[in-house]
């Protein structure tokens, strides 16, 4: 079958393209921004890419059009498809019906940590010899790709609560029908499509309804929002993690970033790994619990964590100049910002952290969480916020931080300010869910020039 994918260069749709190609389909695609690294990855797979959404792409005579949620009414190619009465389907629905239908799906849902937890879970299964398929919204360093299709019965998927397509406003994850589901956490986000947290809880309960009675829910025991979700009805086995009364707990922290793993109060071993912070310990517990559901022993899971290499753009070191280390991290929600800084602080001790932030997500651009931003940054020693194209007063929102916070409308000016402030042994933590104008490279180049 010839599949043409609209919006192919997003991580999710690019992953679907790779899976469809592996499944034996001819795959082509288009996007408004056909650029590396996704364009390079797809071209290496032999997938033809077209810039833009021109209606003449119907001349490809595809058998099916798979539509990403970046596409809306008024898109010229989409309008032509509809006018002609040609077959189209959303990416999540195509995935659920054509790839996941015969798999044991392990889905990882939550406001935060989906990519990291999915990557850990895929690695636990890989280490145990289960050779899982996966589709993850990032690139796990252990695999080097965001998606792959194998003959294994197991499929690990990052289960996003964002809506499916312009013609299907349900969350993507309702199409996946998992047998094992991690509910990592649940906070208010995606203010562009959800009115309040109750609306998101409804979508999470839709996910819960799709898990069979023989399935398992692995749930963060500290989250009142998830407790409310389960109170609406639950028909599957539940194992909790993270809380004092949870089945799965992280015990005493051992040397470096290690920690004890306890199940039902019994010590099962000590994790030794490089990841920072309580949030990552909870990610590990959730992955261990989900992996045990498919037969991976806790002992093997703990051993696998020692060789887990994290995900690109999760506290990724981009370079070190004159003793100044520059990191890249995907954090953009206030909770993720706070836990990311806290994890780095635990690692670096008394060394200074210079936080460089771009409030880029739709929720942050709307200013919905602006009142939480200052408190999420209190542990940082200096804060540099890129405030261009915001519809709210970033300087006002950060005023509680006093003179340690600065806002900038020009990227060059921000870079100069960070470099002027930085000194040996500082840690520059760049946080954004986008490319941030290549600021990481700009910072490193400017630091080199300061030698």
From TrEMBL:
User: What residue stretches are annotated with the Mur ligase N-terminal catalytic domain?
Assistant: 2-99
Q: Which InterPro entries match?
A: Mpl (IPR005757), Mur-like_cat_sf (IPR036565), Mur_ligase_C (IPR004101), Mur_ligase_C_dom_sf (IPR036615), Mur_ligase_cen (IPR013221), Mur_ligase_N (IPR000713), MurCDEF_pg_biosynth (IPR050061)
Question: Which residues does the UniProt record annotate as the domain Mur ligase C-terminal?
Answer: 313-434
Q: Does the keyword Secreted apply?
A: no
Gene Ontology MF terms? UDP-N-acetylmuramate-L-alanyl-gamma-D-glutamyl-meso-2,6-diaminoheptanedioate ligase activity
Q: Which reaction does it catalyse?
A: UDP-N-acetyl-alpha-D-muramate + L-alanyl-gamma-D-glutamyl-meso-2,6-diaminopimelate + ATP = UDP-N-acetyl-alpha-D-muramoyl-L-alanyl-gamma-D-glutamyl-meso-2,6-diaminopimelate + ADP + phosphate + H(+)
Q: What is its EC number?
A: 6.3.2.45
Which key words are in the record?
Answer: ATP-binding, Cell cycle, Cell division, Cell shape, Cell wall biogenesis/degradation, Ligase, Magnesium, Nucleotide-binding, Peptidoglycan synthesis
Role noted for this protein: Reutilizes the intact tripeptide L-alanyl-gamma-D-glutamyl-meso-diaminopimelate by linking it to UDP-N-acetylmuramate.
The record's comment on protein family reads:
Belongs to the MurCDEF family. Mpl subfamily.
Q: What is this protein called?
A: UDP-N-acetylmuramate--L-alanyl-gamma-D-glutamyl-meso-2,6-diaminoheptandioate ligase
Species for this entry? Leeia speluncae
* This protein's encoding gene: mpl
């Amino acid at each position: 079958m010839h599949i043409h994918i609209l919006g192919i260069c997003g991580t999710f749709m690019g992953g679907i393209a790779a899976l469809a190609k592996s499944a034996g389909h001819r795959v082509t695609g288009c996007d408004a921004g056909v650029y590396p690294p996704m364009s390079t990855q797809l071209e290496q797979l032999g997938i033809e890419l077209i810039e833009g959404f021109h209606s003449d792409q119907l001349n490809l005579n595809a058998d099916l059009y798979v539509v990403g949620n970046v596409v809306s009414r008024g898109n010229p190619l989409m309008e032509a498809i509809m006018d002609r009465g040609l077959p189209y389907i959303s990416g999540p629905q195509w995935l659920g019906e054509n790839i996941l239908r015969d798999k044991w799906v392990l889905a990882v849902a939550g406001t935060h940590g989906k990519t990291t937890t999915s990557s850990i879970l895929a690695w636990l299964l890989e280490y145990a010899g289960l050779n899982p398929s996966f589709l993850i919204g990032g690139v796990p360093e252990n695999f080097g790709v965001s998606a792959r299709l194998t003959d294994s019965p197991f499929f690990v998927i990052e289960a996003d609560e964002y809506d499916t397509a312009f013609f299907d406003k349900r969350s993507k994850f309702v199409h996946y029908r998992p047998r094992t589901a991690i509910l990592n956490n649940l906070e208010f986000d995606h203010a562009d499509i959800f009115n309040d947290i109750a609306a998101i809880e409804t979508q999470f309960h839709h996910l819960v309804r799709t898990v069979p009675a023989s399935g398992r829910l692995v749930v963060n025991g500290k989250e009142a929002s998830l407790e409310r979700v389960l109170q609406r009805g639950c028909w599957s086995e539940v194992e909790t993690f993270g809380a004092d009364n949870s089945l799965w707990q992280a015990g005493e922290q051992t040397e470096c970033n290690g920690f004890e793993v306890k199940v039902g109060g019994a010590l099962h071993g000590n994790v030794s790994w490089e990841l920072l912070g309580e949030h990552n310990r909870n990610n590990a517990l959730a992955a261990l619990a989900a992996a045990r559901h498919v037969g991976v022993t806790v002992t093997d899971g703990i051993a696998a964590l020692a060789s887990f290499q994290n995900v690109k753009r999760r506290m990724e070191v981009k370079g070190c100049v004159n003793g100044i280390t520059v990191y890249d991290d995907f954090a953009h929600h206030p909770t993720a910002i706070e836990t990311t800084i806290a994890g780095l602080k635990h690692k670096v001790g008394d060394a200074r952290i210079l936080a460089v932030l771009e409030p880029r997500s739709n929720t942050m651009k709307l200013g919905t969480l602006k009142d939480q931003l200052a408190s999420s940054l209190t542990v940082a020693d200096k804060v540099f916020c890129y405030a261009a194209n915001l519809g709210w007063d970033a300087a006002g929102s950060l005023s509680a931080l006093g003179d340690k916070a600065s806002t900038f409308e020009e990227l060059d000016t921000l870079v100069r300010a960070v470099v002027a402030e930085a000194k040996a042994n500082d840690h520059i933590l760049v946080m954004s869910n986008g490319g941030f104008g290549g600021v990481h490279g700009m910072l490193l180049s400017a630091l080199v020039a300061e030698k």
